């Protein structure tokens, strides 16, 4: 019995295992990228995320906050918006076709 150290450089099975592990990590990264965490089933957007999603400037979002058009949460120095509040705002602004 030899006491040879097995590494991914000298053993193909170990090397194959690490390649598979890297692929799995990459797939997990892609799966969870963009997945928003929730709090009691409610997800939240940051100022930057919401401005990108709605194609509005962050300054416009600030105007909406100042005018009371969109509810928000201020936690420390960070502004958060509930996804349900955003959906409600969009639904209220929806207009049927004119004719």
Jot down its keywords.
single chain, alpha+beta, 4 helices, 51% helix, elongated
Care to give the gist of this entry?
This protein is an alpha+beta fold and 99 residues long.
Give a description of the structure.
This protein is α+β, with helices and mostly antiparallel strands and 99 residues long. The protein has 4 helices and 4 strands. Strands 1-2-4-3 form a 4-stranded antiparallel sheet. The protein is elongated and about 80 Å long. The N and C termini lie far apart (87 Å). The model has no long low-confidence stretch (mean pLDDT 85).
In DSSP terms (H or I, runs of 4 or more residues), the helix count works out at 4
How are helices and strands ordered from N to C? HEEHHEEH
Which residues sit in consecutive blocks of at least 5 with pLDDT less than 50? none
Strand content range: 15-25%
Biggest beta sheet summary: 4 strands, antiparallel
Q: What is the subunit arrangement here?
A: single chain
Intertermini distance = 87 Å
Beta-strand segment tally: 4
The helix fraction, in percent, is: 40-55%
The structure class reads alpha+beta
- Strand order of the biggest β-sheet: 1-2-4-3
* Rounded radius of gyration (Å): 24 Å
**Average pLDDT:** 85
> How would you sum up the global shape?
elongated
Secondary structure: elements and pairs:
Layout (H helix, E strand, L loop, with lengths): L11 H21 L5 E2 L2 E5 H8 L3 H10 L5 E3 L2 E5 H11 L6
Antiparallel strand pairs: 1-2, 2-4, 3-4
């Amino acid at each position: 019995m030899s006491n040879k150290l097995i590494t991914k450089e000298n053993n193909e099975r170990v090397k194959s295992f690490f390649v598979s592990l890297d692929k799995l990590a990459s797939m997990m990264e892609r799966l969870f990228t963009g997945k928003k965490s929730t709090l009691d089933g409610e997800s939240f957007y940051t100022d930057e995320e919401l401005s990108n999603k709605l194609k509005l400037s962050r300054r416009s979002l600030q105007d909406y906050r100042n005018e009371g058009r969109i509810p928000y949460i201020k936690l420390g120095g960070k502004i958060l918006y509930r996804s349900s509040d955003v959906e409600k705002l969009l639904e209220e602004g929806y207009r049927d076709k004119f004719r």
